[in-house]
Amino acid sequence: QLQLVESGGGLVQPGGSLTLSCAVSGFTLDYYAVGWFRQAPGKERELVARITSGGSTNYADAVKGRFTISRDNAKNTMSLQMNSLQPEDTAVYYCNAAQLIPRRDYWGQGTQVTVSS
For residue range 21-41, what is the model confidence (pLDDT) as tens digits? Predict the structure, then answer.
């Protein structure tokens, strides 16, 4: 069964840290670009960070220097280390695995991150 399952979300105070994890089953990540997206209430889903199958990364300007994406193909997992969290980081975070050829695009169910004092 093909699944992406996020974990690690929760409530954190401003300035705090969280690590999100995404465990993948049903396919191997080796040839996929993987990424984290987020969606805040009333806003569109946006890219937070992505890492290609070759290891190249890109980040949204809002999280550069604070968030770090990683992948472990051997464990079929991806992670997002989030530091210096701010209230504007509050959103549902989704992991994603995508491949261009053939076209495939898989999503997790989302995990809530709330940054509040």
Answer: 999 999 999 999 999 999 999
